[in-house]
Design a protein that fits this description.
CATH topology of the largest domain: Dihydrodipicolinate Reductase, domain 2
Mean pLDDT: 95
Structural class: alpha/beta
Oligomer: single chain
CATH architecture of the largest domain: 2-Layer Sandwich
CATH superfamily of the largest domain: Dihydrodipicolinate Reductase, domain 2
Largest sheet: 11 strands, mixed
Helix content: 25-40%
Distance between the termini: 40 Å
Strand content: 25-35%
Number of domains: 3
Number of helices: 14
Low-confidence stretches: 1-7
Bound molecules: NADP nicotinamide-adenine-dinucleotide phosphate
Radius of gyration: 25 Å
Number of strands: 17
C-alpha cells in the first residue's frame, strides 16, 4: 500500500543527491516507484532531495510509466550514466556487465548500492577494494534475504559481539517446494511444477533447486559474520532435487520437517580437530519445534547465535519487488546521508582470516533409514560399521516390514532400521553410509538426511 506523503514534510534545500538506477525489472521498477512516491519523506530523512538522474535498461522503448519516472530518463547507455551520479543502484544481476559498471561508478566517485548476491559471492573483495580506494560506500542489504534487515545487524549491530553460527532459510523457492512436499505428500517434480505455475519458481529453476543462490548468500553471510573472506565456490552445496517423498515421510516420523539450510559455523580448535569456519548449503531435518521449522511457503528466516547476544531470529519476505526495494532504499538513505553529512559506512572486514573447513570436517548428524534382513546378528553388524568409523549412535528404531511372498524367498524377513547419530565429522558419517550400503544384510539405504537444530 502506498502511503501519501505528509504535507508537513519540509523540503530540504541544497543540491540533490543524484541517483542512477541500473536495471528496471522486478526490483528496479519498485525502487524507481518508491523513490518517486516517497520523494519528500526521503529528502527529509537524507537532508537533501534524491533525484533519479537516469535509469539504465537493456531494452529501450518498453512502457515503464508505472515507475512514475519520465520516459526521457531511461537509457541503454549504463556506462555513461554511472559517470554522472552520486549513488549508483545496481539491480541488473549477474557478473557482467554489473561488475564493470560498478567499478566504473566507484572510479567516478559514486557510492554503490547493489542487490547482486552472485557478484558479491564471486568477487566481493574486488568491489570492496575499489570502494576503499575511491573512498565511497558499498552497501548490499538486499543481496541476502530480500526485505529482511540482516546484513546491517551482522555488519554493524553485532560488530561488538562474536557470532558463532548463522543458520537460515534464504531461498524462498526451495522453501515453497519443500513446504508443499511436506503438507501435500507430493514428490519433488510435482511440487516444483506447482511452484512454477504459481510464479514461485523460474522456468529454469537450477539456481534455486541446486542451491547456487543459497550458496552465494551463505558466502556473504559467513564473510560478514566471521570477518573472513568466503566466496561462493568455498561453500559446500547440495540442492533439493534428490529430496524424495520418502525423505519427507521419514522426517515426519521423527516429528521433523525438511528444509534447505544455509549454515555458517565457527568452531574452536580442539586437540584432535582444527577449528575454523564451515559454510554449507544442504537439505536437513529440523525438529518441528525449532523456530526455522515454522517458516512456511516462500518466506525466509535466519537464526543467529552470538556469544553475548545469544539467539536472534530474523524473519520476513526474502524476495519480491517491494520488499527488496525496501532494503535497497534503506541503503540509499544511508549512503546519501554520508554524501550530505560526511563519513562512510563499514568497509570489508576480513581481519580474522579464519581457515575454511571442508565439508568432511564439519560436524553433522545423520538420520539414516535402512532396509535390512530381519534376522539375528544384523543389528550387531550395523553397530560395528558405525563403531569402525567412530560414529556414535543416538537412537535406533526398528519396524518389521511385511514381505511380498511372490518376490521374496520363503521365510525371508525384512525390517526398516532408522538410525540417528550423534555429531561426527561429515566425512566419517558419509563413509559409514558407504560401509552400510556394502553390507550383505543391508538390502538398501532408503534415506540419508542430515539433522540440525537438535
Ligand atoms: N527479484 C527479487 O525478488 C530479488 C530479491 C533479492 C535480490 N534480487 C537481485 O536483484 C537483481 C535484479 O533482480 P530482478 O529480479 O529485478 O531482475 P530482472 O527482473 O531480470 O531485471 C533486470 C533488469 O536489468 C536490466 N538489464 C539487463 N541487462 C542490462 C544491461 N546490460 N544494461 C542495462 N540494463 C540491463 C533489464 O532491462 P530490461 O527491462 O530492458 O530487460 C531489467 O530491467 C539481481 O541481482 C537479483 O539477484 C532480486
Amino acid at each position: 500500500m502506498v502511503r501519501s506523503t505528509p504535507s508537513s514534510v519540509p523540503a530540504p534545500g541544497g543540491d540533490p543527491v543524484r541517483i542512477a538506477l541500473l536495471g528496471c525489472g522486478v526490483v528496479g521498477a519498485s525502487v524507481a516507484r518508491l523513490l518517486t512516491e516517497h520523494a519528500d519523506d526521503l529528502a527529509a530523512r537524507v537532508g537533501r532531495p534524491l533525484e533519479i538522474v537516469g535509469i539504465a535498461v537493456r531494452r529501450a522503448g518498453r512502457d515503464r510509466s508505472a515507475t512514475g519516472v519520465d520516459a526521457d530518463r531511461f537509457t541503454t547507455d549504463a556506462a555513461e550514466l554511472v559517470t554522472r551520479a552520486d549513488v549508483v543502484v545496481e539491480v541488473i544481476g549477474g557478473i557482467e556487465p554489473a561488475r564493470t559498471l560498478l567499478l566504473r561508478a566507484m572510479a567516478h566517485g559514486a557510492s554503490v548500492v547493489t542487490a547482486n548476491k552472485a557478484l558479491l559471492a564471486e568477487d566481493g573483495p574486488t568491489l570492496y577494494a575499489a570502494a576503499a580506494e575511491h573512498g565511497v560506500d558499498l552497501y548490499f542489504e538486499a543481496a541476502v534475504a530480500g526485505g529482511i534487515p540482516l546484513l546491517r545487524p551482522l555488519r554493524e549491530s553485532l560488530a561488538g559481539d562474536s557470532v558463532r553460527k548463522v543458520m537460515g532459510i534464504v531461498n524462498g523457492t526451495t522453501n515453497y517446494v519443500l513446504d508443499k512436499m511436506d503438507s501435500s505428500g507430493q514428490g519433488f517434480a510435482e511440487a516444483l511444477s506447482q511452484a512454477q505455475a504459481l510464479g514461485y519458481a523460474e522456468a529454469d529453476p537450477t539456481a534455486d533447486v541446486e542451491g547456487f543462490d543459497a550458496a552465494a548468500k551463505a558466502a556473504i553471510l559467513a564473510s560478514l559474520a566471521f570477518h573472513t573472506r568466503v566466496a561462493g565456490r568455498d561453500v559446500h552445496r547440495e540442492g533439493i532435487t534428490e529430496v524424495s517423498a520418502a525423505d519427507i515421510a521419514a522426517a515426519k516420523e521423527m516429528d521433523c520437517v525438511v528444509k534447505l539450510l544455509a549454515i555458517c559455523e565457527r568452531t574452536a580448535d580442539e586437540p584432535a580437530r582444527p577449528g575454523g569456519v564451515s559454510v554449507r548449503v544442504h537439505p536437513a531435518m529440523l525438529p518441528r519445534r525449532h523456530p526455522l521449522a515454522g517458516v512456511r511457503e516462500a518466506f525466509n528466516a535466519v537464526f543467529v547465535e552470538a556469544d553475548a547476544a545469544g539467539q536472534l531470529m530474523f524473519y520476513g519476505r526474502g524476495a519480491g519487488g517491494d520488499p527488496t526495494a525496501s532494503a535497497i532504499l534503506g541503503d540509499v538513505v544511508a549512503v546519501a546521508r554520508h554524501r550530505v553529512g560526511g563519513g562512510h559506512g563499514p568497509g570489508e572486514s576480513a581481519y580474522a582470516d579464519l581457515p575454511l573447513l571442508d565439508m568432511g570436517q564439519a560436524l553433522t548428524r545423520y538420520h539414516i533409514s535402512l532396509d535390512v534382513a530381519d534376522r539375528p546378528g544384523v543389528l550387531a553388524q550395523i553397530a560395528t560399521a558405525f563403531a569402525e568409523h567412530e560414529v556414535s549412535i543416538e537412537t535406533v528404531r526398528q519396524h518389521h516390514v511385511a514381505v511380498d511372498p511372490d518376490a521374496e524367498p520363503v521365510g525371508a524377513q525384512r525390517a526398516t532400521l532408522v538410525v540417528v547419530t550423534h555429531a561426527a565429522p561429515d566425512a566419517a558419517l558419509s563413509a559409514t553410509v558407504d560401509a552400510l550400503a556394502a553390507l550383505p544384510v543391508v538390502r538398501g539405504v532408503t534415506s540419508v538426511m542430515r539433522v540440525e537444530g537438535v
